[in-house]
Specification:
- The mean pLDDT is 92.
- The longest helix has 35 residues, at 3-37.
- The radius of gyration is 16 Å and the shape is globular.
- With 191 residues, the protein is mainly α.
- The chain starts with a helix and ends with a helix.
- It has helices at residues 3-37, 42-63, 74-90, 93-118, 123-146, 152-172, 176-190.
- It has one domain: Heme Oxygenase, Chain A (Up-down Bundle), CATH 1.20.910.
- The chain is 84% helix and 0% strand.
């Protein structure tokens, strides 16, 4: 494997670890609000939080072997996640579902790009991400099943969360996320 691929793999593990940390903070904030205002959804949020904690630990354990270390902007992931979780939960149940769907959809697209890149380069990391992706998709589908609005504010919120998620991923990978997406698009167009 060439040095550029090793660096990209290191960045993949780093950004995935940071993203899971941000998700942990989102769900913790949402749980804190929901336990008072929407107790019927706390079980789902707690189960999802447990998944994210496990994913974070798995990516953390994958870092050493790939010469990776935690992201320099972990504070942005953590504080941003906390703020996002708190603010969206104050918007009501729909705010929580819209947030979950927007984040998970953005993450799913990035995981697809990563899987395409890793397919022949790092089978162990490929397998780990593939397994985690299934749980993330279940979060996405659950949230989408509970979204009952399609108002202008809901579309704006979704676009804003998606943009913010993509921006922090781009910053955390030094632009490698864009290169992987372009490579995937280019190869998809050749088929």
């Amino acid at each position: 494997m060439n040095q550029a691929d090793k660096i990209t793999i290191s960045r993949i593990v780093k950004v995935n670890h940071a993203g899971e940390y941000g998700a942990i903070r989102i769900y913790r904030a949402q749980i804190w609000v929901a336990q008072f205002l929407y107790p019927e959804i706390v079980t789902f949020l707690k189960e999802t939080l447990e998944h994210e904690i496990n994913h974070c630990a798995l990516f953390r354990s994958a870092m050493t072997e790939r010469n990776s270390r935690p992201c320099r902007i972990m504070g942005l992931w953590g504080n941003g996640g906390l703020l996002l979780g708190f603010m969206t939960s104050l918007l009501g149940r729909q705010g929580i579902w819209l947030c979950t769907a927007a984040v998970e959809k953005a993450v799913h697209h990035h995981l697809e790009d990563q899987l395409y890149f890793l397919k022949d380069k790092d089978p162990a990391l490929y397998s780990l991400i593939k397994d985690i992706q299934q749980e993330e998709l279940s979060h996405l589908h659950h949230a989408e099943d509970h979204i009952t609005i399609n108002s202008p504010w809901a579309r704006l919120l979704t676009r804003s969360i998606t943009f913010a998620t993509d921006a922090v991923i781009w910053l955390s990978t030094w632009g490698d996320s864009s290169k992987m997406a372009k490579s995937l698009r280019d190869n998809s167009n050749k088929r």
